[in-house]
Structures are given as C-alpha cells and as structure tokens.
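Hi R.,

Here's the chain you asked about this morning:
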Amino acid sequence: VLRLFVFLVTSLAAWYLGYFAAAHVPQNAISIEALQEIGKKPVLRAPAPKRQKCDHWSPCPAGNFAYRILSGGGKQRKAKICFEDEQLITEWNDDTGSGINVAIVNYKTGKLRSTNFFEMWGRDQSNEMINFIRNAPEGSLILMATHDDGSTRLKNDAKNLIEELGSKEIKNIKFRSSWVFIAAKGFKLPDDIQKEKINHSDQTKNRYKGWPAEIQIEG
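And the predicted structure, written out as tokens:
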C-alpha cells in the first residue's frame, strides 16, 4: 500500500511539473541543438587584418610616409608607384609607359607634384628626363621605376645625374633590366630605408620571355 501511495504521489508531481513547464516556458526556449551548443567550446577567430597604406604589412610610424615602388614585368605589367596610399603611377595612368617612369612628390606635404615616363628604346628621351628631374624643386622626393627597356638610349649625363641623387646601380643598368629607386633632392633620406634594387635580364632565369621578373622596394 505504501509503495502504491509513493508511486501515485511521484506520478502526480511529475505530471504537475510537466504541465507547469508546458504552460510557462516558451516552446522555442530550449532545443536539443541549444543544449548541444552549451557543451561546445567557444571558437576564437582572429580579426581580419587592417589594411595598411600601400598594402604594407605593418602601419607606418607617425611622422613617416609609406611608399612602394614596383617595376614593370614583361610587356603587360606596367610600373606602379604608391605613396601614402595614393597610386601615383599605375597601368591605368596616362603618364605611365615603357622606359623610365618618374614621380616627384613634395617631401613636406607628401603631395604629388608631377609624373611622367621617358622612352629609352623607340625614342631618345634621356634629355627630357634630365630636365624633368632638374626642374623638380628642392625638397622633392623622386621615385623611379623601369618598364620594358630603360637603358638603350639612357645617356651618361642622365646616369651621372641619377648617381648624384644616390643611385649605386644606374651605371650597371642593362637592356631590359628591372630597376626601382627612391631619391631625395635637397635633403638626405634616412639610412635605414631601402632605396634601390635592380634585376638584370637573363634568358635562363627570366620570368617572362625576354624579360626578368618585376622587382619592388617599399618602406
């Protein structure tokens, strides 16, 4: 009799609790999926990296300018010059072409003064480039990059001028060499930045038929 009484009381209590839950707990409050999620460990996801100026991996320190200079590669890949996240020379720029591409920037403001390119194969524009650089005001940054051939009609006067700006490779430039360079006019650049790079054409190693791989410097 006692066992029957305990069974009836237990059944009645279970029924009451079930009725109470059904009446007061929302239908979608608890699900099997929700109970399974409780036991899972949280998944930690790294935040998406913030894009830096000129696609640098790390932010530029305060009081500095960001730059990236990329030479052309083959016939199709033209030179590119980025300064403070502004594309000064790109494949869509009218002042971009074969030969030596030059961008002149105001060092105090970081603003573009002018850009141009000088053909060194089909036309002789060595003297025009000399005048373009000489006309740059004091306090200018001069950023240079080749596309296709920048050496065949490059005269010694132009090489001497670029060497005076700090180039150590301009007199070594050869047919279709990839070359990039950053220089200062009227002041001195920091010693710890990369200023120049060159890559010569080599038929056994060229990335493109007749052309070496494009190269770049950044800082």
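The CA atoms of residues 151 and 173 lie 6 Å apart.

Let me know if you need anything else.
M.
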